[in-house]
Amino acid sequence: MTDLSQPTLPGALPDKRQVAASFSRAATSYDSVADLQRAVGSALIERLPAMAQPARWVDLGSGTGYFSRALAERYGADAGTAVDIAEGMLRHARTLGGASHYVVGDAERLPLRSASVDLMFSSLAVQWCSDFASVLSEALRVLKPGGTFAFASLCVGTLQELRDSWQAVDGMVHVNRFRRFEDYQQLCAASGLQLSTLTRLPHVLYYADVRGLTHELKALGAHNINPGRPGGLTGRARMTGLLEAYERFRQPQGLPATYQVVYAVLHKPLEQGHAK
Q: Count of domains in the chain?
């Protein structure tokens, strides 16, 4: 039987200390290249159910606070808490406002009281969590009965063009690994939360050249931080090989970079005495 508490992937996901450090370093450059993040987070907000004014909402993996500010426009900043593992991101977000509290925290061990949150929103953050079952368990714990957990994440197939191109060059791990969509299905079903929607949609960005893509990934803090990645600088011969291999994917719009985006909305069941 498959152990669903861990992702069934070839190799481990990135160490969260490296994730936190990488995104902290990217705090000042992140917003200038975050087109994907804007599009995905906006699509996730559109998937939120109609609800009364939440007494407390949380932006989990809030980054620079772009969607904290969007949530504040809907629900009020006084009700908001921004949580991120990267302290540098939170420092940057605090200067722009949008939430009443800014908390350094791990999605697998949230520093929040049980049954204290009406809405937990998380866009493109939980893919960095190796134990997603713990993320769901924490959501179940901190949500009030009837509360909502909405998340967007990435799954296997993301940046497949880049992965395949590197595979043709040296076969080493150059691209971040992601959980299978089937794992999201199984883990959500076993979480104790009620699943409202769970879908996978491709989102394709186009670049004039490979360097534009790799520069953007670095500016986002989302460049390769996997165990087993090659050390040192990428040699000229390998980079030339990558450029040639990626050209096989060129389309009229440019070089594609496909992201497989997972959207999910779950609810904490009402307490038995209040169930319909």
A: 1
Residue 99: C-alpha distances to residues 81, 88, 156, 160, 227 (Å): 5, 16, 33, 36, 34
pLDDT tens digits, 225-274: 444 444 443 567 888 888 999 999 999 999 999 999 999 999 999 974 44
Query: Is residue 94 included in any domain, yes or no?
Result: yes
Query: What's the Cα-to-Cα distance from 225 to each of 4, 25, 135, 231, 251, rounded to whole Å?
Result: 23, 13, 21, 11, 28
Rounded-to-integer distance, Cα 29 and Cα 36, Å: 14
- 120, containing H or E segment: strand 117-123
Cβ-count burial of 98 within 10 angstroms (0-12 exposed, 13-18 middle, 19+ buried)? buried
Q: Let me know if residue 95 belongs to a domain.
A: yes
Residues in the chain, overall count = 276
**Residue 85 is assigned to a structural domain of this protein:** yes
Q: Determine the structural domain holding residue 111 and report its residue range.
A: 16-158+176-206+258-270
**CATH code assigned at 70:** 3.40.50.150
Q: List the structure tokens of 65.
A: 């606070």
Task: Give the integer Cα–Cα distance in Å for 72 and 255.
Answer: 36
- The three-state secondary structure class of 84 is strand
Q: Burial-class residue 3 by CB neighbours within 10 Å (0-12, 13-18, 19+).
A: exposed
31-88 confidence digits (pLDDT tens): 444 688 889 999 999 999 998 889 999 999 999 899 999 999 999 999 999 999 988 8
- Residue 190 domain-assigned (yes or no): yes
**Pair of tokens at residue 105:** 């925290």
Paired residues of 199 in beta bridges: 263
How far CA 100 is from CA of 39, 69, 77, 78, in Å, comes to 25, 11, 6, 5
- Hunting for tokens 């970079």 — which residue is that? 257
